[in-house]
Automatic annotation (TrEMBL):
Gene3D superfamilies: Aspartate Aminotransferase, domain 1, Type I PLP-dependent aspartate aminotransferase-like (Major domain). Its EC number is 2.6.1.9. Pathway: Amino-acid biosynthesis; L-histidine biosynthesis; L-histidine from 5-phospho-alpha-D-ribose 1-diphosphate: step 7/9. It comes from Cohnella lubricantis. The keyword Amino-acid biosynthesis applies. This is Histidinol-phosphate aminotransferase. The lineage of its organism: Bacteria, Bacillati, Bacillota, Bacilli, Bacillales. HAMAP family: HisC_aminotrans_2 (MF_01023). The modification N6-(pyridoxal phosphate)lysine is found at residue 222. The keyword Amino-acid biosynthesis applies. Belongs to the class-II pyridoxal-phosphate-dependent aminotransferase family. Histidinol-phosphate aminotransferase subfamily.
């Protein structure tokens, strides 16, 4: 049996090493994982209570359209429910966008380097990926605009960019959208937006209301701390959202996930606390990198990318032996590692380990 030729070369997704495996392999009792940009403070207690309540109903299919959650998010964002689509994580929204919009040969513009799931789903749909190098670790929007051709279908912008953590500003995105043909979809992935209070950071909703070709991606996996429940969403023009909805699987988000997200959305205090702690953690790591003479990219989300000035894989292995799992293996950045901002205690541990390793 032959699979589609365009998927033959795709790697099977390799998640970062799980904590339990590292403990077992290296005989360590205390291991922390700062590799997947999860929330070190877990989820809101309100979300956990909602999960416990919803367990009584897990034998019943969920509301596939996630109506209650959609209404709540729409109200919070100041959009209509017809402008929102939920997915099993924003990963699935990326998949659904590719599935609904890409024909074989359609060109897609992405940054190099950026979140790998754009390329993954473009390739599955037989689309063409045009990669535009980052400039100082940041999306080069003028160069991405210059790469647009009559074959361009989607431009994917990751803001802040994973793995570098850098952002493009409201003005830059507005300027880009004003020049790109309206037939080109622009996907703005804002997975980490709730961490950011910088006034230059784009107001995606405001832009989306002016540009019907703009689709935003958001998630409950990061600041809301619900990564394992797989709840993410897209926000866009009702026509675009309807097309995405047409390819959606019937029950793509779970009851438990929807209930948790609905409760998490209402706990502003938890979110504010996580945002403040993240800011302190970023400052702590930045100061440590400065002391160690390690250049880091400006970071806006809950992770920071730093140049350890030696092969990142070696530093990854050495950190692992100290019980700290970080992220290496970024092809464009062979001497950089990406570190998730942890709790104060975890941040102190990662700094101490780096000091010993380097
Ligand atoms: N976009 C970006 C930029 C991400 O970093 C991630 C998570 N690593 C995702 C999307 C996907 O997140 P999820 O599917 O958990 O919503």
């Amino acid at each position: 049996m032959q699979p589609k030729p365009n998927i033959v070369h795709l790697p099977v997704y390799q998640p970062g090493k799980p904590i339990e495996e590292v403990k077992r392999e290296l005989g360590l009792s205390d291991v922390i994982k700062l590799a997947s940009n999860e929330n070190p403070f877990g989820a809101s207690p309100k979300a956990i209570e909602a999960v416990q309540r919803e367990l009584a109903n897990i034998s019943i299919y969920p509301d596939g359209a996630a109506v209650d959650l959609t209404n709540a998010v729409a109200e919070k964002l100041g959009v209509t429910p017809e402008q929102i689509i939920f997915g099993a994580g924003s990963d699935e929204v990326i998949l659904m966008i590719a599935r609904a919009f890409l024909l074989p040969g359609d060109e897609n513009i992405t940054a190099d380097q950026t979140f790998p799931q754009y390329r993954h789903n473009i390739e599955i749909e037989n689309g063409v990926v045009i990669e535009v190098p980052l400039k100082d670790g940041t999306h080069d929007l003028p160069a991405m605009l210059a790469a647009v051709t009559p074959k361009t279908k989607i431009v994917w912008i990751c803001n802040p960019n994973n793995p570098t953590g850098t952002i493009v500003s409201h003005e830059e995105v507005d300027n880009f959208l004003s020049k790109v043909p309206s037939s080109v979809m622009v996907v703005l992935d804002e997975a980490y937006c709730e961490y950011i209070d910088d006034p230059a950071f784009p107001d995606g909703i405001e832009l989306m209301k002016r540009y019907p070709n703009l689709v935003l991606l958001r998630t409950f996996s990061k600041i809301y701390g619900l990564a394992s429940l797989r709840v993410g969403y897209g926000v866009g023009h009702p026509d675009v959202i309807r097309s995405i909805n047409q390819v959606r699987e019937p029950f793509n988000t779970s009851r438990v996930g929807q209930a948790a997200a609905l409760a998490a959305l209402q706990d502003d205090e938890f979110i504010a606390r996580c945002r403040a702690a993240n800011k302190e953690g970023l400052a702590m790591l930045r100061a440590a990198f400065e002391r160690l003479g390690l250049p880091a990219f400006p970071a806006y989300g809950n992770f920071i990318m730093v140049d350890v000035k030696r092969p990142a894989g070696e530093v990854f292995d050495a950190m692992l032996r100290k019980g700290v799992i970080i992220r290496a293996g970024h092809k464009k950045y062979p001497t950089h590692v990406r570190i998730t901002i942890g709790s104060a205690e975890q941040n102190a541990k990662v700094i101490a380990a780096l000091e010993e390793v380097l």
